[in-house]
């Protein structure tokens, strides 16, 4: 412990990380640098400065990372149409590599020899933070207090805070019964009644979305403009990446879009139930697949679909900075050169319905696809040879007595 002189702590200003800050000072007798990230979680981050100053912190970083988060992490992930285990849009997972990156950048700037985080020893986030940190700075020391201390309950944390005069309120606003994480892509809920997989989630838990039952009776139509696989405008108005996601969250939330209740397989081995609100991301996924449907070659689209589960697992398990994810990203990005155009969507009571798509790079040819006369654009007699050639191996096998009947 004595060889740690300065540590950069991912600091929210809440109970856990405020206790961690003091614990690091006492246990490691080291200087602590705090880093607070604004990823669009919807809460004030500036109060963390005063709390850190009250605990004697001299180097305090509070960074607005919203644009970088969406531009360099969320958008690249959505170019791959990324979904984990068929449903989860990876809202928590995709924020961790950016936090790890910034922790290492600050460690380099301040000469720190260690980083620290508040992730528990049961979850995925410890893996994500630390894999990212080691990939970017191999020799960095990582301090994970939840794997070292004996403060394993909220009451013990509160007692520690009271004993050391850490400014945390015991009373006041009612604390949510859920463990929550929020950023511009989503908000997640775990714990509480959700630990019983048969119990329905509570309606008053949701923060961003109205219930589909209470969504407007009239549908909302929007048009999303794409350039190289990314949304660059909504209804013709050009917006930055963070502005795009903010606006889609607003529109989607108002229409009851993006609620999810799943049981997922954590990388550390256990199953975990989580509820998620991802209104903007739900719209983005549907729209991106729609614009790709007319601009991507069939085999390119199918290859992307085959590789996506691997890509999703890499993101979920914390391998954003791995060579294999970077290799996949280069291939995915190359496929997006022609993913340009406009998608029109109908949003109605929790549903995202594609009603139109157009592109100058479209591969859809109405002259060939038509059910009417095509003027010789497609010779239907060609299909006979195509079918026979594709049936050849099955015909040979059946001729050898290997018929499936």
Automatic annotation (TrEMBL):
Q: Which reaction does it catalyse?
A: L-citrulline + L-aspartate + ATP = 2-(N(omega)-L-arginino)succinate + AMP + diphosphate + H(+)
Sites binding L-aspartate sit at 120, 124-125
What organism, scientifically named, is this protein from? Stutzerimonas kirkiae
**UniProt name for this protein:** Argininosuccinate synthase
Q: Which InterPro entries match?
A: Arginosuc_syn_C, Arginosuc_syn_N, Arginosuc_synth, Arginosuc_synth_CS, Arginosuc_synth_type_1_subfam, AS_cat/multimer_dom_body, Rossmann-like_a/b/a_fold
Q: Name one Pfam family in it.
A: Arginosuc_syn_C
Q: Which GO terms describe its biological process?
A: argininosuccinate metabolic process; L-arginine biosynthetic process; urea cycle
| Pathway(s) the chain acts in | Amino-acid biosynthesis; L-arginine biosynthesis; L-arginine from L-ornithine and carbamoyl phosphate: step 2/3
Which residue ranges run through the membrane?
none
Q: Which UniProt keywords apply?
A: Amino-acid biosynthesis, Arginine biosynthesis, ATP-binding, Cytoplasm, Ligase, Nucleotide-binding
Question: Hey, which family's this protein in?
Answer: Belongs to the argininosuccinate synthase family. Type 1 subfamily.
What positions does the entry give for ATP binding?
Answer: 10-18, 37, 118
Q: How does it assemble?
A: Homotetramer.
Q: Where is the Arginosuccinate synthase C-terminal domain?
A: 178-396
The UniProt record gives the binding positions of L-citrulline as: 88, 93, 124, 128, 179, 188, 264, 276
Instruction: Give the Arginosuccinate synthase-like N-terminal domain ranges.
Output: 6-167
The lineage's top-level taxon is Bacteria
């Amino acid at each position: 412990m004595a060889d740690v002189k300065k540590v950069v702590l991912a600091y929210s200003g809440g109970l856990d990380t405020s206790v961690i800050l003091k614990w690091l000072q006492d246990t490691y007798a080291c200087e602590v640098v705090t880093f607070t990230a604004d990823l669009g979680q919807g809460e004030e981050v500036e109060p963390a400065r005063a709390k850190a100053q009250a605990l004697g912190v001299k180097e305090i970083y509070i960074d607005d990372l919203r644009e970088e988060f969406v531009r360099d992490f969320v958008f690249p992930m959505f170019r791959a149409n990324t979904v984990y285990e068929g449903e989860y849009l990876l809202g928590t997972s995709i924020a961790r590599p950016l936090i790890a990156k910034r922790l290492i950048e600050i460690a380099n700037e301040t000469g720190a020899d260690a980083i620290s985080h508040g992730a528990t020893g049961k979850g995925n986030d410890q893996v994500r933070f630390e894999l990212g940190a080691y990939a970017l700075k191999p020799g960095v020391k990582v301090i994970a207090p939840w794997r070292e201390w004996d403060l394993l309950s909220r009451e013990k944390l509160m007692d520690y805070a009271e004993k050391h005069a850490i400014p945390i309120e015991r009373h006041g606003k009612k604390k949510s019964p859920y463990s929550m994480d929020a950023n511009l892509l989503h908000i997640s809920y775990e714990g509480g009644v959700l630990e019983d997989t048969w119990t329905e989630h509570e309606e008053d838990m949701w923060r961003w979305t109205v219930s589909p039952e209470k969504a407007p009776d009239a549908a909302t139509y929007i048009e999303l403009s794409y350039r190289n696989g990314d949304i660059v405008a909504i209804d013709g108005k050009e917006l930055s990446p963070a502005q795009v996601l903010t606006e889609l969250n607003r529109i989607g939330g108002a229409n009851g879009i993006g609620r999810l209740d799943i049981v997922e397989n954590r990388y550390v081995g256990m199953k975990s139930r989580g509820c998620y609100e991802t209104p903007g991301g739900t719209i983005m996924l549907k729209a991106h697949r729609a614009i790709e449907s007319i601009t991507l070659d069939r085999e390119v689209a199918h290859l992307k679909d085959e590789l996506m589960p691997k890509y999703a697992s890499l993101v979920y398990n914390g391998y954003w900075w791995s060579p294999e994810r970077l290799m996949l990203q280069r291939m995915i990005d190359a496929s997006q050169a022609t993913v340009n155009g406009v998608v029109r969507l109908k949003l109605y009571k929790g549903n995202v319905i594609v009603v139109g798509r157009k592109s100058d790079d479209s591969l859809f040819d109405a002259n060939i696809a038509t059910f009417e006369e095509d003027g010789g654009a497609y010779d239907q007699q060609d299909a006979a040879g195509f079918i026979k050639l594709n049936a050849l191996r099955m015909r040979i096998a059946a001729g050898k007595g290997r018929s499936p009947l």
